[in-house]
């Protein structure tokens, strides 16, 4: 059995991790657990570097948990775009990847620059409740063609490259 700790209690992030690992390890029994840990950065990271630091901090915060893989997903901004960093730790080695980026409406960007979080902004703009734990801004802006979990799924597989090819890393 593979034990996977996710540095979040967010169902969308846990679902993405469970889905990606199930695809990568179809013959394994998986136990995927979410644990709320601090990012050590702003609730709404405003740059790629700050977002990556948040993900690295979250993975480090899982160090005391017994797991085969420790996974953090940190969403943030990069200019006019939102995206997320995936960081996976396995046996002391780190794998990283960025998710796809999506443009944000100018009205949303203005609110983010004023200090609001993206999930709250999207909830207000689209008259939703707690969208960040569902399909996310991605679902709202793509008319539910994509979801936060679906976009994170691909990036998580990319972050696994060092573990799928250990002799190259």
Query: Can you tell me the overall shape?
Result: globular
Share in β-strands: 15-25%
Q: For the CA atoms, what is the radius of gyration? A: 16 Å
The low-pLDDT segments are none
**How many helical elements?**
7
Determine the N-to-C terminus distance.
24 Å
The tally of strands reads 6
Order of helices and strands: EHEHEEEEHHHHH
Main β sheet profile: 6 strands, mixed
Average residue-wise pLDDT:
94
Structural class determined from secondary elements: alpha/beta
Helix content: 25-40%
Task: Give me a quick take on this structure.
The chain is of the alpha/beta class and 169 residues long.
Secondary structure layout plus pairing:
Elements: E1 2-6, H1 11-24, E2 30-34, H2 48-61, E3 69-78, E4 81-90, E5 93-98, E6 102-103, H3 106-113, H4 118-126, H5 136-141, H6 148-159, H7 161-164
Parallel strand pairs: 1-2, 1-3
Antiparallel strand pairs: 3-4, 4-5, 4-6
Helix pairs in contact: 1-6
């Amino acid at each position: 059995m593979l034990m996977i700790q996710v540095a979040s209690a967010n169902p969308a992030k846990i679902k993405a991790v469970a889905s990606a690992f199930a695809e990568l390890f179809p013959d394994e029994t998986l136990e995927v657990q979410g644990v709320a840990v601090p990012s050590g950065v702003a609730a709404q990271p405003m740059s790629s570097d700050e977002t990556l630091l948040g993900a690295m901090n979250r993975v480090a915060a899982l160090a005391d948990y017994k797991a085969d893989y420790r996974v953090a997903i940190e969403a943030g901004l990069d200019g006019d775009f939102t995206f997320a960093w995936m960081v996976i730790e396995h046996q002391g080695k780190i794998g990283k990847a960025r998710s796809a980026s999506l443009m944000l409406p100018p009205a949303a960007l203005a609110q983010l620059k004023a200090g609001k979080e993206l999930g709250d902004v999207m909830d207000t703009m689209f008259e939703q409740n707690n969208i960040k734990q569902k399909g996310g801004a991605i679902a709202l802006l793509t008319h539910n063609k994509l979801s936060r979990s679906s976009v994170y799924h691909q990036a998580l597989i990319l972050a696994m490259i060092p573990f799928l090819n250990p002799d190259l890393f």
